[in-house]
Amino acid sequence: MKGWTKSWFGLSKKATSNQNSAVPNPEYSRSPLTAKTNHPLDGNYGAKKDVSSKGAFKDMEMSSAIPDANEDILMSGGPSTVDREALNSPSGKNSDILPEVDHEPSGYLKLKIDSLKLEGNHTDAAMAMECTSFKQLFLVIQFGTSEYVSPPLKWKSSTRDTAISIPSRDSSAAASRASSMLSNFTFNTSTMSYCPTSSTPNPSAPSHVVFDVAKRLPVELNIYDHSRGNCFVGKTVIHPCYDYNQYEQYSNRVEVSSAYAQLVDLRVQLSSVFQPLNKKSYGPEDFEPLKLIGKGTFGQVYLVRKKDTRRVYAMKILSKKVIVRRKEVTHTIGERDILVQTAAADSPFIVALRFSFQTPKDLYLVTDYMAGGELFWHLQKSIRFPEARAKFYIAELLLALQALHKRGIVYRDLKPENILLDVQGHIALCDFGLSKANLSVGSTTRTFCGTTDYLAPEVILDEGGYDMMVDFWSLGVLLYEMTCGWSPFYAENTQQLYKNIVFGKVRFPRGLLSAEARDLIKLLLNRNAKNRLGAHGDAEEVKRHSFFADINWEELSAKRFSPPFKPIVEGEFDVSNFDVEFTNKEVPNDFVPVGDMSTSAPLSSTVQNGFKGFTYVDSSQMDEAYNTEPGSPTSSVSSFHDDYHNQDFNRTNDDFFMDHIDP
Ligand SMILES: Nc1ncnc2c1ncn2[C@@H]1O[C@H](COP(=O)(O)OP(=O)(O)OP(=O)(O)O)[C@@H](O)[C@H]1O
């Protein structure tokens, strides 16, 4: 059908420039598989008034020094070996998050994997063959949303430290020899060989992992087989002992996946110790830049390594000058505040803020690094996802939105660029720059913001304000985009896009979507927000839709659903899922040391004061003020409003959907 042959055009990210201009750029740049510059439209543009922040800036505090991360984990006091199989079983009663003590780092957890041991009687030749491929096993150790990807583990015999070489499959005699050899083999991580690749800027990886601990969480160990396309082998969960300086050893049976069930009987042996922190505050000099991974409106995002624990993080650096010039002080402080609140929301599907601090020039937000990259990146490559894969992402997103809405936060900028994947393929929402906190149920807001393709009609129309339902509208757009490969409202220019959103027809390609998926999209893309799915019960109502009939929400929220796709991530410094446009750029050896805020500031002390509240700010006053400013994006859609009000609007929601078009 005419106009729908450019199926992936909907995924081209448009340069809807907000470069200090109130008027969205009418011309999209259309380079579908390359560009990614769909800047959000933000109601702040053109605003004359800035709202100064409340409250005082407070660095995340640490409370003691961390010994060198390479220091041996073994502590005096003697180990107590505990078989915590029952306690630590992923399906066991005790597998949920332990009572939280504090939201700020209170210590660090050192973990040392002593061995991955193959047990049982390996008399079967096929089993022996399988086991040899385990030369390429690696671990993904997950602490909250912080992940450590180990280098491949090295086989080690209990008697000889040697890699095993097994002859071809059809040699049964050799296979049985191998079988007997394997009966007592372990992977010994203390001798694991670390192979630096081009994506590993610094090859000196520690032989154990240290996590910065704010909440006393369980640790999940996932085992993958690199030789079989990073196939999931199994996992186990440990609940580390959080008594200071208490050394513990664990011996856990790995819950293996069905593909490996008859072949292996794996046990992981590890030790842990939790130690207090002395350090009071952090600054950029505590982090080593490794790679540039992204650029946003106000600055860059780097992959960094924290010097003391050697943990990798994503560090977003926001230039104060640019923020002030673009009158975004309040929003920026709001982003930090929302990240703090979401950290407390305990959603595994929201990127976790670890540290925030500022220098005279910049603001810094340090979050867990999501090595799988943006969902946008993967969608571009696949053009569209199979429905089951789209369902998985939409279901996890729904849980993320539920956690936000419960805390009175409307996200407002749901789009594939803001959805990141972790190493295992679970989603994590990032970028809370446009989110709004403290929106109670039933109340509305009026700021004109979001990203054009995903704007709900009530945001464009600006009639009675809008509420959390805008997020469900965007979710509907996203589901359509993931399953069909283009945007439901795709248009050549902004004015036409707005028209399509407010009264255009949504066309479903023939035979691509199930009846349930179509129905869910229709219900989410209901122009009347009061009748939109979610209006009566928020995410719970959406979760009950038949599209999600096969989702066990409890399992999903505990991340026990195996993701349908695992991004390729080789080692903890891997940035191959990010655009080479960024990752190929030179990075500084170090971030500049922090200067004295009062003397070396390039901005006046009054302006600096505005950043004192790099903490919570109630931005409700801002919405009203900015909406009425001349030249704001709200006024930029006035010509569209004129058009819109001349249209026949006495149609039902069903009139907006057409079931059959050719893909
Ligand atoms: N925790 C993270 N892990 C991995 N990548 C990240 C992380 N945070 C940000 N990024 C990368 O950096 C990009 C820009 O980050 P972010 O969207 O937060 O910046 P922004 O300045 O708000 O961007 P924009 O102006 O487009 O809204 C992301 O799209 C993502 O590719």
UniProtKB/TrEMBL annotation:
UniProt domain AGC-kinase C-terminal: residue ranges: 549-626
Binding site for ATP: 316
Gene3D superfamilies assigned to the protein according to its UniProt record, in alphabetical order: Phosphorylase Kinase, domain 1 (3.30.200.20), Transferase(Phosphotransferase) domain 1 (1.10.510.10)
Family matches, as SMART domains: S_TK_X, S_TKc
Domain Protein kinase as annotated: residue spans: 287-548
Keyword Ribonucleoprotein set for record: no
Any one of the GO BP annotations: TORC1 signaling
Biased composition, class Polar residues, residue ranges: 14-23, 629-639
Domain of life: Eukaryota
Keyword Transferase (UniProt): yes
Renumbered residue ranges of the record's region Disordered: 1-50, 68-101, 624-643
Keyword annotations of the record: ATP-binding, Kinase, Nucleotide-binding, Phosphoprotein, Serine/threonine-protein kinase, Transferase
Entry's EC annotation: 2.7.11.1
GO MF annotation: an example: protein serine/threonine kinase activity
Reaction equations catalysed: L-threonyl-[protein] + ATP = O-phospho-L-threonyl-[protein] + ADP + H(+); L-seryl-[protein] + ATP = O-phospho-L-seryl-[protein] + ADP + H(+)
SUPFAM superfamilies hit by this protein: Protein kinase-like (PK-like)
PANTHER family linked to this entry: RIBOSOMAL PROTEIN S6 KINASE (PTHR24351)
Record-given protein name: non-specific serine/threonine protein kinase
Organism: Schizosaccharomyces cryophilus (strain OY26 / ATCC MYA-4695 / CBS 11777 / NBRC 106824 / NRRL Y48691) (Fission yeast)
